[in-house]
Every structure is written in structure tokens, then in C-alpha cells.
Amino acid sequence: MIIPRIKIAHLPTPVEWLPNITGLLNGPNILIKRDDLTGIGFGGNKIRKLECLLADAQANGAQMLITTGALQSNHCRQTAAVAAKYGLKCRLVLAGEEPQQPSGNYLLDLLMGAEVIWTSRAKRDATLKSTFDQAWEEGERPFMIPYGGSNPVGAMGYVVAMQELAAQQVNPDWIVFPSSSGGTQAGMALGARLTGFKGKILGISIEDKAADLQSKVADLANQMAERLMVNEVFSSENILVNDDYLGAGYGMFGELEKNAIKFFAQKAALFLDPVYTGRAAGALMDLINKKFLKRGETVLFWHTGGLPAIFAESYQPELM
Ligand SMILES: *Cc1c(COP(=O)(O)O)cnc(C)c1O
Predict the structure, then answer these.
(1) Cβ-Cβ contacts under 8 Å for 30 (sequence gap 6 or more)
(2) Of residues 73, 150, 179, 181, which has the active-site annotation?
């Protein structure tokens, strides 16, 4: 099975045991997979997707990457990084209001030379389309990457990631991680089947109700299986999602995230982000507290990155 990709990320990312956190939570053995260390442009999970997306873009003769996300989008920052390194232009359609003072991911977008088009959350996908059409009219060779890089091409990066985990001979009972646009989980789900992974893959939903995210992930995994011409079929029941930790909504920082960020910083010198990994680690801690995740099991927390958001002006007052 050949998955076309350009080797961009620093792989394999390390798997580390967290003795202090394991001991203090007094539950399962806790490992962490460091996809915050995928390397370029401050790293994160989107770099794995972009390895596959860049191969597609290059095969199509693209000279500009266009994608979309929130003001503090990690995906947009990683797309800007890949574009910068591989000599492509980059246009980002950001949903939100232009801040007076650039910070966090958005500051990095600007430093890496991305052009920014502003839109609202409701008009996001329409603006993405019109930005793409306009680039063609300007004589550019644009390549459109959907929200989160989550299409059947991008999500292949996480099939590769599951092959990598198998090669590292890490066999946890659970993988726990933040799940949002679904590409990471879809790639893991298909990768698990193809590598014979025996553990459970639990996505902590960041934004959607579980049923919506499960069907989104299953659809994407089915499209990927078709692309790879492998005989694997997914339905919602095959996709594990917990939506108990949505809090006040996407990007809304609360006590759950704050406690998790401080705990991991103080007990493991690891930094989590306010939107994704902070929420998922807060969920992990609560699920251990409730004995849903138990002593005697091994849990791999998959760190998906997002660190620059810690330095976003909007989160700074809330972090302390
Ligand atoms: C995008 C992102 C996720 C979610 O990944 P999806 O593939 O969109 O589900 C998780 N964590 C971080 C830090 C992200 O940037």
C-alpha cells in the first residue's frame, strides 16, 4: 500500500512514559505520543496531514496553498509553514476579527508570509471557495485544503502515524486525543484496522455532539478505504467519541482546560494548548477520576500540538 507523501515531519515522534502524572492520577499507566514535536513551524498534527496534501498539491502543479480556520488556527499556521518551506504562496481565510496586536498562531502566520483574508464563521466555507476562484482569476495556481486538512488525502497522514506507532511497538489499551474536524481520528481508525491495533481509540470531541463527529469520521474513513482499495467498512458504532467536555463551546477556555494545562506543565514540563489538548487532557483526568480509565490499563495520550495558542493575547489573562 502506497500513500503518497512528502517527508516533512520529524518522524517518528517520541513516545514517552509519564511516571509523575501516572502516579498522581493513581489510575492507568500514561504514555504520551509527542506530535507536538513534528518539527516545522512549531509542529502539531496537521504536519502529518500536510505531508500527504503537499504531495497532492505538487502533483497538481500548485503554487499556492489556500485554507481556512479560526484566528488562532493551528492548521492554518502549519499550512503557512509548509508553504514557506516548500516555496509556495499561502492564503489563509481566517474566521474572526483582525486583532490590533498579532499574537500566537496568527503572529506566526504573518511572520511566515501568509496573506490573510478575513471572514466570519458562518461565511467561512463560501469565502474559502471565492478566495480560491479569485486566485485562479489572478493567474495563480492555487490548491485548496479544507478546514483542518481533513479530507481523504490529508487524513492519510494518520494511517501513516498508526504504522509508525506499530513500528514503535507501543500497544496501549487506549489512545485518547482531541478530535475536531475528524481527519486525525479517521486516519487512526483506518490505520488501526490495517495494522491490527487492538486498543480502543477514543476521540474527545472539541466541538461537535458525539453522533455528528462519529458519522463524519466514519464517512471519511470509508472514503479513505475506497481510495486505498482496501476492504474496510466503518459505521458510527466503530468510532468512539466522548462529548462530555464541550464546555461553553469551541475555543471557550474553562477550568477543565486550565487545570489540565497547569497539571501537565507542573508535573511533566509539557505544554498543552487551550483549545484542543488542554480540553482532551482535562477529559483524560476526569475519566481516570471516574474510573472509566482504570489501573492496570495503559493509556496513550496523543499530543496533537497547538502550543502557540498559549501565547495568544486572548488566552493570556485566563491562563493564570
Ligand atoms: C486540528 C487539531 C486537532 C484536531 O484534529 P482533527 O483532525 O481536526 O480532528 C487536535 N489538536 C490540535 C492541537 C489541533 O490543531
Answers:
(1) 17, 18, 21, 22, 284, 298, 299, 301
(2) 73
Question: 305: Cβ below 6 Å to ligand 1?
Answer: yes
* Ligand 1 near 308 CB (within 6 A): no
Q: Give, for all 320 residues of the chain, the pLDDT tens digit.
A: 789 999 999 999 999 999 999 999 999 999 999 999 999 999 999 999 999 999 999 999 999 999 999 999 999 999 999 999 999 999 999 999 999 999 999 999 999 999 999 999 999 999 999 999 999 999 999 999 999 999 999 999 999 999 999 999 999 999 999 999 999 999 999 999 999 999 999 999 999 999 999 999 999 999 999 999 999 999 999 999 999 999 999 999 999 999 999 999 999 999 999 999 999 999 999 999 999 999 999 999 999 999 999 999 988 888 88
Q: Which residues of 263-288 are buried (b: 16+ CB within 10 A; e: fewer)?
A: bbeebbebbbbbbbbbbbbbbbbbbb
| 61 Cα–ligand 1 center, Å | 27
Cis peptide leading into 4, omega within 30 of 0? no
Record the cell numbers describing residue 14, joined without a space: 517520541
Q: Answer whether 191's CB lies under 8 Å from 221's CB.
A: no
| Global model pTM greater than 0.85 | yes
Number of helical (H) and strand (E) elements in the chain, helices listed first: 11, 10
Q: How many of the other CB atoms lie within 10 Å of CB of 167?
A: 10
Closest atom, ligand 1, to C-alpha of 306: 13
